[in-house]
Amino acid sequence: MQFVLLQALLLPLLLSPVAYYIGRKSGPTAAALFSFGLLAYCTVLVIAPVLSGGYEEHYKWTQLFGEFGLLLDGLASPFAIMIYLISTVVALFSKPYMVSRITTMFEERMNTEKQLVGGGTEMVESSSLKSHVNHQIGAYYALFLVMAMGMLGTVLATNLIEFYVFFEVMLIPAFFMLAIWGYESRRRVALLFFFWTHVGAVILLLGFLSIGLSVGSFNYADIKTHGIPPHVLALAAVALSSGAMLGVGAYGFFRLIIMLMPAQYEHFALALNIWGLVTMIYGGIMALVQDDIRKLFAYSSISQMGYILFGIGSASALGLSGSEMMFVSHSLGKVILFMMVGAIILQVGTRSITKMGGLAGKMPITAVCAMIGALTLMGVPPTSGFMAEWTMFYGALQTAIQQGSMIRMVTFGLGLVATVITMAYVLWMIKRIFFGKLPENLEKTKEANWYVTGPMMVLAGFSVVIGIYPDVFFNQIIPFMKGLVGV
Asked: 65: which residues sit within 8 A by CB, 6+ positions away?
């Protein structure tokens, strides 16, 4: 089959207007099922070539920037699969959540208008609500498809300018989604997001241009072959580090720093290891003291990014393999738990942990899936988190012993302490939400519908499968990382 990756990449972009039209004319269910079916097909297109090993496609683009290539190697495959797999299940999950969010925002706006002008019939309001929801849900799924396509393109790119183009494509729909459907101060938050991500993007572009113009090519393969001239190494290192930390940070470090500048990576690998350790501990401690469940997971995401940085700084094939596996594990565990948050907001109507308790009896499926997500985040068998953490810490210890570095030994020990902090905030959250006494006002709480519980069960099952048989990804990851560090 020809143009496999090109199809997987471009179909969501080309058919995003169709998703908008379906949503506007037929409503949320049709738009959700269309987006789900499209992304499921594209996910199969991404997975199929991986089963037979590495795969790449190359197309003529422009003499100015080089070729347009799409590459599925040991580094890109896990990222690409997880991006589209999670996007596929989120397409279903987000339908009731987004309908609820859009309805709430519409009612708030109508109440404000009533207070200003008074009156209004319920019939007109009901008709207006349906039309408004259809219009908004169509726009949401159109933006969602474009964002998924941008993330995949960033991972599959074989060219610096191609990477930058898809990086920008990923950021633009994210900005609109924040600005339109965000929560408190959403426009301010969206503008700050847009400003800082594009500051990083401009710095990233400067680094790309300095590399491409000095080497004479923007293609990864040519840059790796010829090397980056010494007089642009400093600018390139700063630029790539600044830009890569936005959105697709882990992949950016692997592809842009370790692969293209291996000598420089060896020099600051220890700094990355320490940076990751500090991030792990800081994010974990901040998560411990949060009452708002969304803020808890925001700090948890910071802590989990620290784990990935810690593994990247290990400078060993196993440490790097564990770090990439941490991305897989983090994606599964965190998305399951974010889905749990969505289910609770839909069914309970609050984000405050202190106002919850005893929900396991009312929402058993959500509770079981949340527990599997929690075990994944903590790195407990038989979930994918255990294999990721075990491999990452083993690689870090291996480097510390081989180098005889006391600093690395200390960071390894403190890294294990950070895992205890992770267990503490995760288990404390689970206990307060699902166990203990059920508040009287939550007596009528029911389990969320299948749009919410179905995706959670799929991801929870996948985490267990990867935990039992990690070679699904390790067969691709470990050989690539060994080649990357010269083993």
From this structure: 159, 161, 162, 212, 218
Beta pairing partners, 58: 69
Do the bridges between strand 66-72 and strand 55-62 make them parallel or antiparallel, or are there none, so unpaired? antiparallel
User: Taking the domains of the chain in order of start, what are their residue ranges?
Assistant: 269-487
pLDDT tens digits, residue range 372-400? 999 999 999 999 999 999 999 999 999 99
Residues in contact with 51: Cβ distance below 8 Å, sequence separation at least 6, in sequence order: none
Q: What share of the chain is helix, strand, coil (3-state, %, to 5)?
A: 80, 5, 15
User: What pLDDT, on a 0 to 100 scale, did the predictor assign at position 243?
Assistant: 45
Local structure of 91: helix, strand or coil = helix
Output the six-digit token pair for 393.
């810490």
Nearest CA among 148, 166, 153, 158 for reference residue 204? 166
DSSP-derived 3-state class of residue 67: strand
Extract the tokens encoding 386: 């255990």
Backbone dihedral region for residue 441 (phi beyond 0: left; psi -120 to 50: alpha; all else: beta): alpha
Global pTM value = 0.90
Instruction: Give me the residues of the chain with pLDDT under 70, please.
Output: 1, 113-127, 230-247, 487
Tokens of 359: 């929900």
